[in-house]
Structures are given as C-alpha cells and as structure tokens.
Amino acid sequence: MKSNIFLLFIFFTLLIANSLNARQFEKKYSKEGYKLVWSDEFKKDGFPDASNWTYEKGFVRNEELQWYQPENAFCKNGFLIIEARKEQKPNPLFEEGSNNWRKKPNNIEYTSACLITKDLRSFQYGRFEMRGRIDISDGLWPAFWTLGEKGNWPANGEIDIMEYYRGKLLANIASLGTSKKPKWFSNTKSTEELGGKKWAAKFHIWRMDWDSEAISLYVDGLLLNKTTLKQLKNDDGTGINPFMQKHYILLDLAMGGLNGGDLKDTKFPNRMEVDYVRVYQK
C-alpha cells in the first residue's frame, strides 16, 4: 500500500511539474510573440489520442528492420512510449525469391511504431518542440520530424528536428535536388561530446523555429542547423519551395536499415519516451 501511495505521489508531482513547465515556456515564448496553437501532453493512459495521431504500418522505408504496428505505441504516466521489440512473426508480404526488401524476409524479427499527424494536424511555420528521452544503443534510429503535405518525397520537403543513429544527433533539412535525388542541408552533433550514456539517460528538448525566411533546429537551446528558405527550393525547374506549405509531424523509433547500424548488442524491449509535442505560432 505504501509503495502504491508513493508511486501516486511521484506521478502527481510530475504532472504538476510538467504543468508549471508548460506555463513557464508559454510565458517565455509569448514575449517573443508566440502562442501555443496545438499540443499533445499524453496525459491519459492507453492509446495515443486518435484525433492527433494515426500510424504507419509494415516495412516502410530505408530497408529498416522493424515492422511498424500501432500496438507498440502507448501512453503511460504522462508519457508517450514508443517501444521497440525483438519478436518473431510471419511476414505477410513474403514472396519466395523476391528481391524486394519488404518481401524478402520470411519472418518479421523486430517491431516498433511510427505515429503521424497526417490529415489530422498540419502546420506552416512556427516553433515545434518535443521533450523526450532516447536510447543511444547500437542500431536504434529514433526521430521527430516533418514532411510536407503536397508532393512526393523529397519534393515535398523533410525536416529532421531530432534524429539519432551511429553515435550522433542529426539536424537535417531536405528538398529535391538534381536527378530527382534529395538535396540535404545537414549538421551533426556527437552524443559522446554531449555526455554519452549519461546525457541520453535524461530528457532533452528538441526545437524547430520555422518562418518565411529560415529554418533553425536546436537541442536544449543549442543551435545545430540554420538554413534559409532561399536555399531550399526544389531543383526541378518549377521554383516550388516545399517549406512554404503545411507539414505534418512524425514520431518513430526505427532500427537497422541503411543507417541505423547493427542491433546485436542492443537490449530489448527498448524505448523512446516523449513527454510532450507542442506547436507555437506568431
């Protein structure tokens, strides 16, 4: 009984602290002309709010090892948990002799979740913020990012506000380059330089400031990447800038694939934890 009371005390203490934290940020940002226009604080245990999030499903991109499924995402004690699991199940896409990376494996070996706000919540310009904790074990590839509503990738534009793999944080922005390939504007920061495992054990704030002039990406107030919108026009002769349209948000925990690395020394289940996602606009 005492342990249950103690856990409740901790839970409500965290809720109060988070509420105070939110008000402090709102007060600070309001001085810069920002107003909170949307957020998910993940307060209710159970499935994430269906008015905010849908899910990618299956093998999706980058030859990643995980099969995305909604059941790997849940809210508990005021946090969104995206859980990476090592579990074997038949691959429903399997085709004998196929060279398609989605259809080659007989079995699914890993599962995870990717939550998206597509067709539910999209924004053009503003301050996008996520407070979260990521594991930096080998092979993991967590991300908080956006994609443009209109156009096929990379012509629709991609912003990686938080991305991690192979010992580094990445702050990336991509539009369409020549030969239909992505044109990347990227900067990285070594997690070892930030403090390694001790740094990763704590929660951090990733932020994007995006307006009609530039996109700036931060972690804990440290500027990682600033790119002007003039640089980001698609190089296909149309003159279209994919960052002058609304973008939707994605949260995911990927594994392996083209960039994630080897998972042999990584413990499962593993988690990406999100305290909140907020969008402010002027």
Automatic annotation (TrEMBL):
InterPro entries: Beta-glucanase-like, ConA-like_dom_sf, Glycosyl_Hydrlase_16
Protein's UniProt keywords contain Signal: yes
Gene3D superfamilies: 2.60.120.200
Domain (GH16) ranges: 22-282
PROSITE patterns, per database record: GH16_2
Coiled-coil intervals: none
Keyword NADP among record annotations: no
Keywords, sorted A to Z: Signal
Pfam families in UniProt: Glyco_hydro_16
Position of the signal peptide: 1-22
Protein name: GH16 domain-containing protein
Organism: Pedobacter mendelii
